[in-house]
Amino acid sequence: MRRAIIVAALAALTAACAPSVPGSSSQSGSEPASGDRLTIGTTADVVNYNPLVGNSRTDSWVTNLMYPHLTQMDQTGKRIPYLATEWSYSEDGEQATVKLRDDMKWSDGKPVTADDVVFSVTAVQKEKFGVVAGLITAMDRAEATSPTEVTFHLKRPDGTFLDNVGFWLPIVPKHVFEKAPSVQKFANDSNWVSAGPFKLSKVERGQRYIMERVDGFGPGQPTVKEVVFRVFPDVNTEVLALRNGEIDMIGNVLPPATAAELKSDPNVKLQQIPSLGWAHLQYNTKRKPLDDVRVRQALAHAVDYEAIRNIALKGYAKSANSSVLTPSQPAYADPASQEYAFDPAQSKKLLAEAGVSNLSLNMVYDQADPNIARWAPMVRDSAKQAGITIKLQGLERNTYLDKTDKRDFDIYAGSWAVMDNPPANLGLAFKSGGFINYAQVSDPKLDDLIDQGQRALTQEEAKKPIQEAARIIHDQVYDNVLYVETFNIAHSTKWTGFKPMPSELLSILNPLSLAAAKPAG
């Protein structure tokens, strides 16, 4: 989803805010690295300190260190305890119960309790904002049955609910946020009351964000005393700062070409992170002639997938077998799924069968996305071989998002940042009226299969209907999945101990990872 869903929506704001050039000021933070301080480069300031609505990478990195989630994930994407110690469904699936740690405190000394969890999820449900609201539609109400136990009463069985609310919902302090008339509009931009491994202590906008270690933090006290996020104008400046020893890590994922250049630097380690998302093309099924599956299949056969992965991604990508159940989801992936072959002759044949000639379509994409900006012309050029004209529309980020949200395109080129829970994700992206159903898919059989997968309370029960749903999406080309990227995060060889998570946003900047980071040797 776009968060980072989630989301591409929450995941991809990359505009920087006029930072100074490294070393141009005595306040630039260019002190030598030490075990007391871990300095991370970013290309964007914090836009929103409210974790329930934050939408830039830096928002997520900073607030994730301040506000707990019920669960985290391990390197395979499996949910692991964090604020929650255990979770389960009732036998009939109409209730979900979460038990909490009893040793976590807000920075003002008050305990983190079930009331905070209930307040956070109820605020999102009531005000209906963000991707989380779309993930908890099965919830009727939440109840604090004890200071360390929450019971979620569900309108219908939903085996995706606990994974969704556990991983995606930040928990905020009720006694602070309830004072605001609207939780969604609460700026939370000073006097922070937090409960993470680090607390935000100083902000120099356009320069740096300083976070101090929280001693006695329940899930594990961090090794490093201070985390500093330094703001840079672009990735190239970050790379220079890393090589010069001004920073210890580049927070954002490296463009493939940059990763290839850094591979041989003996002072830099590239940490490779698998993606839980994918890059794709979606065709607007409500526009003629894209409402004809033969036309969509013709377009799928007009893409040179291998060339995109090898040239645009420099080999840092693998095939998804044209399936929304990618190799990053081994519990769901269908080994029978095969990638559409690049076959211009087959494209021409399918178009002729559909009675379509001189096909000309517009394709929108975010011109600031370095990967898509590289492969968008390749999609155009390979389509020419099939007699298809694709007119590229590289757009400024906000314009691009506006067009996709309004479904104002023929072809949408983009990527999902985190698609970590197939039954839930397919509902959002492909079910009729889904929150991120940009292709405007409306398929009753598909809807029914997704519903079956969501009602299942175990992965084993959900697998069959979800695999069948994925086959429909593949055969009908409701989504043309191009590749799954292998992300590269660069850090100094002076540091070790990071705990990677399979996500562009979480990578090695997640709370568990930064708490475990330590000087090498």
Q: How many distinct helices?
A: 17
Radius of gyration, whole Å: 23 Å
Q: Judging by the overall fold, what is the CATH architecture of the largest domain? A: Roll
Q: Any idea of the CATH topology of the largest domain? A: Dipeptide-binding Protein, domain 3
Number of domains: 3
Strand content: 15-25%
CATH homologous superfamily title of the largest domain: Dipeptide-binding Protein, Domain 3
Instruction: Specify the structural class.
Output: alpha+beta
- What is the overall shape? globular
Share of residues in helices? 25-40%
Keywords: Signal, Transport
Protein name: ABC transporter substrate-binding protein
Organism: Nonomuraea cypriaca
Family: Belongs to the bacterial solute-binding protein 5 family.
Describe the structure.
This protein has 521 residues and is of the alpha+beta class. The chain folds into three domains: 8-47 and 196-266 and 493-519, Periplasmic binding protein-like II (D-Maltodextrin-Binding Protein, domain 2, 3-Layer(aba) Sandwich); 71-177, Dipeptide-binding Protein, Domain 1 (Dipeptide-binding Protein, domain 1, Alpha-Beta Complex), CATH 3.90.76; 278-485, Dipeptide-binding Protein, domain 3. It contains 17 helices and 20 strands. A hairpin with a 5-residue loop joins strand 2 (71-73) and strand 3. Helix 10 (305-312) runs antiparallel to helix 12, helix 14 (422-430) packs parallel to helix 16 and helix 15 (444-455) runs antiparallel to helix 16. It starts with 7 loop residues before the first helix and ends with a strand. Residues 2-33 have low confidence and may be disordered. Residues 19-38 are annotated as: Disordered. It holds the Pfam family SBP_bac_5.
